[in-house]
Amino acid sequence: MRNLLVRVLSRFIPIVLLLSCTLFLSACDSAEERAEKHYQSALSLIEEGDVDRAMVELRNAFNLNARHKGARRTMAELQLERGNRQGAYRQYLRLAESYPDDLDSRIMLAEMAFTFGNWDEFDRHGTRAEELDAENPRVKVISLVREYRDAIDDDDPSVRRDLGRKADEMLAERPDDILLRNTLIDNALRDQDFTRALAEIDWMIEAEPTNSRYYQERLRVLATLGDESGVEAQLRKMMEIFPDEPAHMETLVRYYVSRKNLDAAEGVLRELSEASAPEDPVPTISLIRFLSAFRDPDSVRAEIKKAVSERPDPVPFQILEASFEFSEGNQKQAIATLQDALSKTEPLDQSLNIKVTLAKMLLATGNEVGARTHVEEVLAEEPTHPGALKMHAAWQIEADETDAAIGELRTALDQNLQDAEAMTLIAKAYARAGQPQLAKDFLAQAVEASGNAPAEALRYAQLLFGEERYLPAEDVLLAALRLAPSNVDLLSALGQLYLRMEDFGRVQSVVDTLRRIGGDTALQAANGIETERLSRQQGLDAAMSFLEDLANNADATLADKISLVQARLSIGDNVGALAYAQKLREEYPDNLALEAVPAVAQIANGNLDAAEASFRQLVEANSAQPEIWLELSRLKLRKGDIEAAYAVINEGLGHLPENADLLWAKASYMERDGDIDGAIEIYEALYEQNSNSVVVANNLASLLSTHREDEASLNRAWTVARRLRDANAPALMDTYGWILHRRENSAEALPYLEKAAEGLPEDPIVQYHLGKAYLALTRPEDALEQFRKAISIAGPTDTRRQVEEARALVQSLQDGGAAEN
Hints:
With 821 residues, the chain is mainly alpha-helical. Among the domains are: 64 residues, no CATH class; 88 residues, Serine Threonine Protein Phosphatase 5, Tetratricopeptide repeat (Alpha Horseshoe). It has 45 helices and no strands. The radius of gyration is 33 Å and the shape is globular. The N terminus is likely disordered.
């Protein structure tokens, strides 16, 4: 019976399997057919003008067939029509992923990446479009723009101008091409052809009347031309067209303030405040913030009192009042006021805003636990609250949780695409994560979103300055200065930039501007820049003569006189420096801090005991001077007494147990003595205090990766050191390269380690690191040379593990044996 059943089943099973497969295939066909029906329904709804329902039908099509080409393209086009460029970009990206050879999606992605300023994606999709059809007219434009950008990166104005002329010729056939128009704007601006630039910008404004970027471009040109009435009119127009973007109003106010026209600035703000709806507090808040910055405290309090009594919702002004009192030094009163307001406030959004403001106050007073508690409460109630998200993300960045921080900051940006603070924080997160190009992109966006505000402009310009990209840095600083021409920080940065460029004529122009502005800060900046200009252009004697004149002038400040001591020391006039320092000490007998100036000069003259006595007198009078403890320690080192130097650091820590500089010095001594775990413990504590310190990050990562072999320590080192990717200092490059090597990425590590070995030729461990990389890359002869160099530098008495291993590897390589790496 069982055999019969088996025979029956054996005949039946193939039939069942065949039937199952048929049903399965039928189901597949059915899914595709249903997806097509949803797509056709969407097309019909679009014809009827019912776009919302059409988009629902398209999503139904995707659920059944994610690769439906027509549905995906239609969804992208609808998103574009609605102004959702990011949404359209995602749809085209899905289309390109499903159909890599689809030319239209590649063109759209390249063009949209251009408008976003995402150059990596522009190159990626543009390259693929060229591979698919290089003769396509739109692809030709993409190719030209890519060549134009290369010419800019290569700093080749001749090629750039040729490509600009070619773009002009192509425009005759493609007058509506946005990429060509933007290229012509850029080319005209670089050639200072402002008439053409304005014509192209005006065309773009007419084509895209809600794109604030072109209004910003027009504003920059007007400011460059010195058209003050035009700048004012442009800013007012931008305020009218973009009422929800406060940066334009802030820029106009900044513009008036920079020209010392405070009444005009206040007038703009009062005009907006009086025209605002009673339930809209923002314009009045802006007015009160202006008054708190430029008017007397009584006028601020009067305006707040008026708003509290007249506005239907007094809470925003109560928050502002507490913030003002906090800034005036009444911190306990301000915190108590907000805590009382919080206990009485019922509307959720108001209580959340109070908590965020309270969190900022608590953080400023050192109560991070309380601040974090309030921020977490806000996010539990409202996960998209921008203020809370930015504070929380800042803490995440400090903790190296960069991916989470970027996610939260993007959520904040979704609510305000012009949030310069969020952009700056994202840039910081990307820099910490070792993605410098993305960091740079967001810093540039923050400058634009802020309306070329000084803080954002300085931050971006300093990054460009560090990359030795002087002309782009100059463009950024000048754009900010046109709207804030009296900003001392901007002018100081510009002066330093021109010094580096050796453009001494413009250096002098900056100095003259700073002197016209006047005030201690501006004059001190002018004197510093002028001293360096004279030193570079005419030599040290001219610079010294200038400093002598400053110090002997009747209006000379103490800072001017101390600068003369420093200058004498810098040129080796140690005797003259000491004599002048002692004269200063006699001139200011009640200024005990001046004791440090002759003490430094005594060291330069070799009078170490006299210097030590001076430093001792200073710390006995005031032990809370970490810099003096450090000087005392260095003095002991100069005397050759290492133990006494270490003892001074510990003595200083007895008075200042949490001082970062003294702890850093102690860690260095512990490292020298071989107490690596103790040094790591200190660096971990310092990193927790301030994870922004590149020096602390480097030292911690270096010790973890060099002296520990476990994977957890290596992963920790990598997290800390990712920011060093673009570092130029040899020590930082050695740390980053060594960690890459240990992560089995020796090929990428090699250029870092080679430059580090070149920059630190007397450090045996750095030479050893390079040798290990050569060994991993099967370059035994190069490795042998490096290991020999390492043990030669170290000398016969150095018994560190790496040096001992280098000795063994030299022997092994000389013997022709296989060496483990």
